[in-house]
Design goal:
With about 240 residues, the chain is an alpha/beta fold. The chain has helices spanning about 20-25, 70, 90-100, 120-130, 145-155, 170-175, 190-200, 210-220, 230-244, and strands at about 5, 30-40, 45, 105-110, 135-140, 160-165, 180-185, 205, 225-230. Strand 5 (about 135-140), helix 5 and strand 6 (about 160-165) form a beta-alpha-beta unit. The protein binds SN-glycerol-3-phosphate and calcium ion.
Length: about 240
């Protein structure tokens, strides 16, 4: 059965990558959440998609140029200002603390494609281990060197590669990296590709699946999971399929 990961929380209905969006994912019984991690000037791991705070907060500037105490002053309510007064940029640690007693799965995307954050991999892994979440976490990144490093540092934690364009037999490449999950742009995914990936014991979790028609197609392809900004809608569709 395809699992539903709430992308950046429930980003279609709540301020992305905030605790409110993560609580919503749990409320609608998503199987897991996806979030993005960047690092502040004082080495704090923060949950925010972009390298800058311009798009999703009321501030401007690079995440790497703020200490966390400064960063937490900004309002990450984004386009949901009418529904919510103030949402803080969360620390990764807050999310791990909250998720630990739940049954949710967690995909931590390391946002180190543009900026090489010093010791990002080590810090994320230490924190995952501290909360004993090794077997509920998948680490992913568009930076495949970073995923190879994560696998060397923590072979017990699943790693996955993110990519936008179609790859030829990626399972061969993945073996070199030690990754076992493929997180492709949905446009590259076909039914036969999913079948081949499964033959090679590789999980396929495409992003970002927001339209009902596309959700149905991915369910039919039997992908392992989808990332969606609308986990409630995806759950409903999946439940309907089960009963018909
Ligand atoms: O992990 C899937 C997806 O989140 C990757 O793209 O840009 O939404 O982080 P993006
Ligand atoms: Ca992401």
């Amino acid at each position: 059965m395809t699992k539903i990961f709430a992308h950046r929380g429930s980003a279609g209905t709540h301020p992305e990558n905030t605790m409110i969006a993560f609580y919503e994912a749990e409320r609608v019984e998503a199987d897991g959440i996806e979030l993005d991690v960047q690092m502040t000037k004082d080495g704090a791991l923060v949950v925010i998609h972009d390298e800058t705070i311009d798009r999703t907060t009321d501030g401007t500037g690079w995440v790497k140029d703020f200490i966390y105490k400064e960063l937490q002053q900004f309002n990450a309510v984004y386009k949901f200002a009418e529904q919510y007064d103030f949402c803080r940029i969360p620390l990764l640690e807050e999310v791990l603390q909250w998720i630990e007693p739940t049954e949710l799965l967690l995909n931590i995307e390391l946002k180190n494609g543009l900026i090489e954050y010093k010791k990002l991999e080590e810090k994320v892994i230490d924190m995952v281990r501290h909360y004993h979440l090794e077997h509920r976490v998948v680490l992913s990144s568009f930076n495949h060197n970073s995923m190879a490093l994560c696998h060397r540092l923590a072979p017990e934690i699943e790693t996955a590669i993110l990519y936008m364009k179609s790859l030829c037999q990626p399972w061969k490449y993945m073996r070199a990296i030690g990754a076992s999950g493929l997180h492709p742009y949905h446009g590259t995914v076909t039914e036969s590709f999913v079948r081949q990936a499964h033959d090679h014991r590789v999980a396929v979790r495409p992003f970002t699946i927001n339209k009902a028609g596309l959700m149905k197609k991915m369910f039919q392809y039997q992908v392992d999971a989808i990332f969606t900004d609308y986990p409630s809608k995806a759950k409903q569709l999946l439940n309907n399929q089960k009963t018909t």
